[in-house]
Amino acid sequence: MMVKDKISWTSIVVAYSKSGDMGSAEEVFVQCPVKDMVAWTAMVTGYAQNAMPVKALEVFEQMAAAGMAIDEVLLTGAISACAQLGAVRRAAWVQEIAEQNGFGRNVVVGSGLVDMYAKCGLIDEACRVFEGMKEKNVYTYSSMIVGLASHGRANDAIALFNDMVSRADVKPNHVTFIGVLAACSHAGMVREGRFYFAQMKDRYGILPSADHYACMVDLLGRAGLVIEALDLVKSMTVEPHGAVWGALLGACRIHGNTEVAKVAAEHLFKLEPEGIGNYVLLSNTLASAGEWDEVSKVRKLMRNRRLKKDPAVSCFEGQDGLVHQFFAGDNTHPRTSEIKKALLELVAKLKLAGYVPHLSSIVYDVSEQEKERLLMGHSEKLALSFGLLTLAGSTIRIVKNLRICEDCHLFMRFVSKVEPINIIVRDNMRFHHFKDGECSCGGFW
Ligand SMILES: [Zn+2]
Ligand SMILES: [Zn+2]
């Protein structure tokens, strides 16, 4: 009877976790008279898959502390949580546990570790894990190729792809091509990008998904082929999603195409009604072209839709492995006054070095002074200020959930120039490595 009970408790936890209802899963889990391995694992993977990485690691930590058995599925959940958080110390700790439990040579765990380190900004560490793996499959290669591409190491990514399909004779999958196309896009390799996009379908029989189209639109758009990019979107065999139109809008901002920008923005406003960044991008594109009437229309639209809340959040992992979260205009961190004071001093220093805040990153109709105040409340600046206050090494890593704005990008470049530090910011699209006043993205993001 007892055994049967245990199984039914567990199956309820698993069912809730699989359906993404982590609140109910947690409720049942807490009440479980006897928690078995399956229930624990369901909690860790459930949290990880539902974008609750902090919770996933909490549960994993409890299991590790209790000396419970660790398996491949569980490790994969914990690894994915670290990747989402971009937390370097936690990542190293999870790798240690994997090795202690005999998963050091496991191909699934190893592939996860490659992906995790790349997403934590430690691309060299990802390469080391990759090189050390005896067995490599399509997931291992794909993780490495995507990782290299997101860090702007386009040539390495393409070289690895060629090695994978020729020497290693591993058949690529759709994720592999995301990495290859992103690499081509980053390096401005239009001809190669077109070649691989065609090869994907013709040689490997992989039909392009909306994500692949987003890469191609990004590739063409960055290279200034905005009209061709729009034509590609129109010819799509699958429904374009936000990333496709977002890539097009981003290209319009860089190349000043207001007509196509309006088309892309119209779709984005429908697909992502809360996405304040899209309004900012459109408004900036219009402002650069001097279309002020259109700019005020966008502002009016934002007012009517009551888009006020900025859902941006930036994370910074402290020396103790604790992950600190900062929201835009956030006053909730226990060291807020210290952080703000240090930030003001830093801004003064940057201004002496030539930094002029990019006020048009704020689209609200407010005074210039207010614009600057809002800009200085951006989450990545707060995270950076806290990072400088508590830093022991020479690299600050910040993970942001949304695209980094023009002003924060400029700000980070100046900080990397006047302070003896490197800054690595992961935004929702790619990595920015700031060093000596320059960024690895070359100003295209
Ligand atoms: Zn910003
Ligand atoms: Zn950058």
Using brief descriptors, characterize the structure shown.
445 residues, alpha+beta, Serine Threonine Protein Phosphatase 5, Tetratricopeptide repeat, six-stranded mixed beta sheet, 22 helices, globular, binds zinc ion, RNA binding, transit peptide, TPR-like_helical_dom_sf, DYW_dom
The chain-level mean pLDDT equals 91
Percent helix range: 55-70%
- The name of the CATH superfamily of one domain reads Tetratricopeptide repeat domain
Strand order of the largest sheet: 2-1-3-4-5-6
In CATH, what is the class of one domain? Mainly Alpha
Q: Runs with pLDDT <50, length 5+?
A: none
Q: Helix- and strand-based class?
A: alpha+beta
* SSE ordering: HHHHHHHHHHHHHHHHHHEEHHHEHEEE
Question: Which sheet architecture does the biggest sheet show?
Answer: 6 strands, mixed
Radius of gyration: 23 Å
| Bound ligands, each once | zinc ion
Question: How large a portion of the residues is in β-strands, by DSSP E?
Answer: 5-15%
Shape: globular
Keywords: Repeat, Transit peptide
Protein name: DYW domain-containing protein
GO biological process, one term: RNA modification
Organism: Panicum hallii var. hallii
